[in-house]
């Protein structure tokens, strides 16, 4: 059992309507006489109440810290998200709960999320507004959210509305420095100049931290109201934002439902139902009960059934609130007076006065319930949050270790570059001569090319069949030869030879028919080995030695490819000369094709691979050390790959933020 649940079980928490009602007063809290001999009961109750209050403050402090750190970008942090239609009374509800005035205009006013946290641990009222940017201007997410205090701490409650307007304007103009909005007037904010880059809505959030002794320890996220009569794109954006915020398993959905409309016709209620099929995360707030006149008997009965749990049941039930009308807002009545008028209305108006569970009416009861639910949710989530943070820290560490080591600041960049190039060239030479355990695959791949070449050459051996009458399949120029074929070649070659003498031209014709096939396999083998060398240099060795230095890698690649091409051209010329030797004159000490099977691979190795290995380092050194300002050139080449640098910076920032979050979580026992 969690710490909080033990404390709650000692106090008593429910009133029989779901698990979110107002706690039943303990014996020490009631007005009934206590037995004189029961001091332990009073003492235990007082201690329990004190412990619960302390634990609640600790958990809410953790909640505020996690939200400020942007922990929701990494973890499923418990939260309460307020949703509702454009005219559902959502803004009035936010004002009633928080005690501040939020911007109000005709049409859509709230255009980004507002995350509000409230603390009763203060002797005086204060408000700190901040901006948290979870998303970049192009819509992609920051690896780590950026949070900026927006202005100084406010101590004048009447200034909040204007500063909230300024903060929202800053969120909707991410291309403008947010400090530029500190001095904007209300008129300027309501009538801004044309700006094609201004956003209609944003997923980045305004953070509002309120402190006052009269506040309930609570936190919630207020989303833009769902709209229907607007551009299709605007409707989709707001709906998608709402859905994305309420699908998380740890999110409690506070759906605002005006009683002036049918429950089943309201999109906010439908979206909440889709996100929370079993109704275990949803708390419904019924607004505008005073719009149901005495004649609306059917609607009144329906809402009575809902409040008493007979229809559309939710685990945490329904609350009903009466919020100040426009005329009352114009009078600037106090929060206390507003709550007094609401209590008087519910206690004197049917059918609300006849509903037995009075904890379901009024903003104070709603706020108390939300506070308990959020605190309980935080307590239950602590073990899981700690596991998530530990896992994310481990993953960040692994990802960081997989990146190349950061470059060491070197006063001699030329020496560092030449050392890397030396190692690169040494590795290639060792691979060519098979002197390395790391890259034996290079020689093994080339041996496969040479084995294939041998098989191709062997396939050109004459298939002589010393008898007559062989029928050849098809008309291929080379294939099985019988006596008839050979006699035809001899007959076609006779000029003034003596009788029974076989013309040399006949022998030449027969031999050339087969040796003429050697060129294509030889060239194919050569090209395969060239490609193998190119891939090995470009993909394997360059990635190993220069991966984090983009400019150096590309420079070495360009020079290496050029040298590789020069070696290829020179080796190809030598190979072509050798193939010519196989045509004229016809001469051999071998009985067959053995020499070409040996000579072609040896020529490729000596004239291409080994020549490339010998020439690579001198060529690279010469090019690197050429020019008037070698030091500047080397410094530029040693610049780390900006992508790798950005990845390392992002991972380190994430680890720092996650470590802060872990520290906050571990600090609460």
TrEMBL record:
InterPro entries found in the cross-reference section: Dynamin (IPR022812), Dynamin_GTPase (IPR001401), Dynamin_N (IPR045063), Dynamin_stalk (IPR000375), G_DYNAMIN_dom (IPR030381), GED_dom (IPR020850), P-loop_NTPase (IPR027417)
According to the UniProt entry, its GO molecular function terms are:
GTP binding; GTPase activity; microtubule binding
Keyword GTP-binding present in the record's keywords: the answer is yes
Every Dynamin-type G domain range: 74-383
Give me the stretches of Basic and acidic residues compositional bias. 29-43
List the Gene3D superfamilies: Dynamin, middle domain, P-loop containing nucleotide triphosphate hydrolases
Region Disordered, as annotated, extends over 1-49
Domain annotation GED: ranges: 577-669
Keyword GTP-binding part of the UniProt annotation: yes
> Which keywords fit this entry according to its UniProt record?
GTP-binding, Hydrolase, Nucleotide-binding
What is the recorded name of this protein?
A: P-loop containing nucleoside triphosphate hydrolase protein
Species of origin = Roridomyces roridus
Organism ancestry: Eukaryota, Fungi, Dikarya, Basidiomycota, Agaricomycotina
